[in-house]
Amino acid sequence: MVKHKFNKLIGTGETVEIKEQALLLLESSGTAAIVNFCIALLTYLSIPSKSHTWFGFILATTAFRLSLFIWYKKKSILPESSSLIFRVILLSILLQGLSWGFASVYLFHDAVDLHKFYLIAIICGMSGGGILTLAPSLVAFSCFALPSTVPLVIVLLLEQADTFRYSGLMGVIFIVTVHLLAKRISLSQMEIRKSRRELKNLSEELSAHKDRLEMLVEERTREVKKSRENYRILIEEINDVIFELDPQGKITYVSPVITSLLGYTPQTLVGSNFTELVYYDDLESVQKAYMKVRSGILKPLDYRVYNSENSPHWVRSSSRPVMSGKKLIGIRGVLSDIEQEKEAEKEKEEFLRRAGEKQKLEAIGTLAAGIAHDFNNILMGVSGRTSLMLANINPSDNNIEHLKALENYVESATSLTSQLLGAARGGKYNPKPIDLGLLVDSTLSLFGRTKKEIATNCNNPESPVVADVDEKQIEQVFLNIYVNAWQAMPNGGTLDVLISTVKLGIRDCEPYQTIPGEYAKISITDSGQGMDNLTIQKIFDPFFTTKDKERGTGLGLASAYGIIRNHGGFISVFSKVDLGTTFTIFLPLSDKEIDLTPESEFRITKGSGQVLLVDDEELILEVGQALLLELGFEVVVAKGGAEAIKCIVKSKDEFDLVILDMIMPQMDGSVTFDKIREISPEVPIILSSGYSIDGLATEILQRGCNDFIQKPFNMAELSNKISCVLNA
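The structure corresponding to this sequence follows.
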């Protein structure tokens, strides 16, 4: 019931009265807050107190009301929910009243008589003075006057001294009197505001009536001058430029729209030949079209003209000859602005070009990925056999040197397949949060030590720029670009790297099909020979190179492109012949903490138990079985997913571990994993692939697969991976 009455009193609808009261209270809030602060400060200086809590309370409520005033000044207009704003203003006024009520009671008890009467005068004065700023709303006045005066009046009435009790009675009379006065003033102001609204409505009606009369007069005037006026509006107010030429091509008339289109005034163009405006490269085609128009062949023409700043601007002209009998007396036409249309066409062509490049790279990437996968399987055989021979050879044997060299060759070949997988966007092998600034410093330092004829410089921000990346792959990207820059500077030069962070929007990311957000930006600029546009369009193609065969394979930049794309980023390149090249890399920022865990060395550890080895390649099964036997395990091999399921069904509780290939015909690793988990939920499973940990492999790991091992692997890597899984 109380809430209903309050809502009825202050208004719950978006009424004009409520909005006016809110505006008046907001406009007076600045003055009221300053006066409130000054009185509080004087009281603080005049009346001693044990605690200054009361003063802080008053300052806080004053600041609250002042903040409403500042907000109002910035907004300049009220939002649609004016009743909500009105309630907030009432709350701020009520809090001010409560703060003074609390202060008066708190100070009164410990104050001397002189200070008590001073306090009574302050409270009464503030309540009376509140009429000036709060009279627009009786509710607002009550919200301040009652909580600020009633507590002190009650205290006075409870005092033993007659003087204070009489003061309390006078306070009651004062409260009633002031509220009656405030009510009269509030009603008067309401009447005034109502009268103003009525006058405003009347004024608007008169104004509307005046407008209707003026429109009627104008309509009658337009009827008299209709033909000439319509022609003037058609020429001067449409977006297109109307022009007229004499038979020699001189401009005899041009509409004022030419100013907004090209920046010229009509007066400056009249009398000049239109060919003076035509862009030099388009002049010949425009002159041919002009001669065709003279002979009656009408066809729109797109060409460029110079604007007032001497820059080319695309326009489209449609014109026809003006004849007097059989005599040509001029050319009349329309000039349309098509600058944005041409820009849109250019953007569309660029988008289609990039889309075509993306499809081409994806097609080449698919081929490269297949080659890399099969090559990794072959390397797996070589690496496995080499590990087995090293495990069983006498350390003093002369062949041990050849076997270790063979391992190095396998490692080099693995690096090549890594680049192929990078070009194919084959995935991130071991992503973790990395400070890109430190990684750039280390790679640039390594490059600088070997290429001392190149002056290197790195500009890092003060705070770390962290991205979730595979450190080795991104290091490979940087080194590939450094080497490319070095080869473009045969006589030496400078290589500058700038690292920063940027926020990319949809427009920035759409051409590269990436997600808008915060990105790390790494700009690598060289002072080399630069490239032409044709080279730039092919620079990321696998096996494309401008160098001699002995100096490069053409995989470096293709691999860099694929790696960055697979990390959710992109690379752009800007280059001019003889002016150097800038590669700009964008990588999504990470909010994770930097991983400082050092990589542990792989050691061969013997084990025991039964392992199910699943693969579709005989070579992998043979080598894998031999490696596992050498490590002390019993091995059951399954050629393909279907055979693996049969083995699990037959002896599901006997296997201590399953090593599962990801890419297999008929039943791939994903389906096989799910079926194994249905039959034997607890058996540990290591996923193996010649591809990377990203994509399908990541999905399988997220579904509960225990770990992943990248082909080709040797005995030490296999031993370490098995130990991690079985001892987890």
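The radius of gyration is 43 Å.
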